[in-house]
Design goal:
The chain has one domain: Rossmann fold (3-Layer(aba) Sandwich). The protein is built from nine helices and ten strands. A six-stranded mixed beta sheet has the order 6-7-8-3-9-10, with helices on both faces. A four-stranded antiparallel beta sheet has the order 2-1-4-5, with helices on one face. Strand 9 and strand 10 form a beta hairpin. The radius of gyration is 17 Å and the shape is globular. It starts with a strand and ends with a helix.
């Protein structure tokens, strides 16, 4: 359903990701693992069109996205939660979510979003900047889901979040995948988190896929070696 073939991109004269191939089925959760600086965020920015692809293909349901501007990719069914969450701190929780809603929603947040993240309903009038890191992460995911995506890209969702909240986020993502029939691509360094949610694992090293396997066959020791400094 989501297919990336021979994708390359980078900055200036430097190519950072090299010939990345990634295929994800409907309702599949794929984890992209790797240390800092290995190309995970560059890959996600390229998938969203924030960074132009130098070569290769990005397709969703057979529709080619490479070359599209970011807002057209969102309209085609891709949503992105960036590293660091990037919520609007001076806006309320409600206003943050509303920025992701299509015009047809007329600013009304679906009850389903609040049922997935009850704390956001309780805090809907609070400024986003006054939320905890875990609550901001839930807000960023809710804002992305407001666009009604087919594919959700999550870049380092556990960064700076306490372990108990990480478990809540893992539970929420599995619930979202089931309710929304959503494909989720998540980049991470926390193996325990991805082992709990992912169906398939890819490891990036210096911008290349160096390991790939399904959840039931994955070798956690091999992945851990690539994650160690």
């Amino acid at each position: 359903m989501f297919n990336v073939a021979n994708l390359g991109s980078g900055y200036g004269q430097s190519e950072v990701i090299h010939d990345i191939n990634l295929h994800a089925e409907k309702q599949e959760i794929v984890a992209i693992m790797g240390r800092n600086g290995m190309g995970k965020t560059t890959l996600f920015k390229t998938l969203m069109g924030i960074l132009p692809a130098r070569h290769g293909s990005i397709a969703i349901d057979g529709v080619e996205l490479a070359g599209m501007e970011s807002h057209r990719r969102v309209a085609s069914g891709v949503a992105y939660v960036p590293q660091g969450r990037m919520i609007f701190p001076g806006m309320t929780v409600l206003e943050n979510i509303q920025t992701g809603l299509p015009a047809a929603a007329r600013g009304k947040v679906p009850d389903e979003l609040y049922s997935l993240f009850p704390v956001l309903f309780e805090m809907r009038s609070r400024k986003g900047g006054n939320l905890s890191g875990g609550q901001q992460q839930q807000l960023a995911i809710a804002r992305a889901l407001a666009t009604n995506p087919k594919v959700l890209l999550l870049d380092e969702p556990t960064e700076g979040i306490q372990p108990s909240i990480i478990k809540d986020i893992a539970r929420s993502l599995k619930e979202i995948r089931k309710i929304r029939e959503l494909t989720i691509i998540v980049s991470e360094q926390v193996l325990s988190f991805t082992m709990e949610i992912a169906d398939r694992f890819l490891v990036l090293d210096k911008g290349r896929v160096v390991y790939e396997d399904a959840r039931d066959k994955v070798d956690a020791a091999v992945i851990s070696r690539y994650l160690s400094v």
